[in-house]
Amino acid sequence: xxxxxxxxxxxxxxxxxxxxxxxxxxxxxxxxxxxxxxxxxxxxxxxxxxxxxxxxxxxxxxxxxxxxxxxxxxxxxxxxxxxxxxxxxxxxxxxxxxxxxxxxxxxxxxxxxxxxxxxxxxxxxxxxxxxxxxxxxxxxxxxxxxxxxxxxxxxxxxxxxxxxxxxxxxxxxxxxxxxxxxxxxxxxxxxxxxxxxxxxxxxxxxxxxxxxxxxxxxxxxxxxxxxxxxxxxxxxxxxxxxxxxxxxxxxxxxxxxxxxxx
Length: 262
Fold this sequence. Notes:
Blueprint: E1 7-8, E2 15-16, E3 22-23, H1 35-56, H2 64-95, H3 104-130, H4 142-166, H5 171-196, H6 203-230, H7 236-261
Antiparallel strand pairs: 1-2, 2-3
């Protein structure tokens, strides 16, 4: 089913938007921006802020880094809240047999939203059971938290890899999603190693993770430039996912740089 505002050419299978922009062929109708989306977005942001508030109450003095973490959290909260909200869109459309996600940015939103929900839930459960000891790498209970974080990142890597295979988009977008899968895999590996070698601080591994994130950023701009050059039309949720993914990668790279040099 194509958008009611698109004109499909039967001979070539091409689809144009009202502005004459090319779509990537026949596909599902994109979700239109409605009040319910804004309400879901607000609720998702509240969930993220509520979860992060608990993490910021951890009695550990990070000094300037703690301040930077707070700024990062409140900057990303509305964007990751959109990711959490996209899970509601996913469930609603799936219950009616409507494909979603189907554009690259959709997959970014859904994956980051799922990772956010899983991390918030794991934090709440493990902190409730074990208290602040899960954040102390010298405590054996830190292993539980590290393995959980590794598993969540591995789930994200699997979703990004699935997206790279299934999404109907050009190679630049597939490479970008594959890069996101690689980035999540490196993060998963770092947490897995820390679970069993708790005294290990992965300085070189963090630089490797940051380098992969930088490659993903470049691939993202290449893919977006290709869409602009080919006049490929994508919906608002795709671009919201792109902005969310870009912000998450930029803040992650900034965090690695700050931790290493402050």
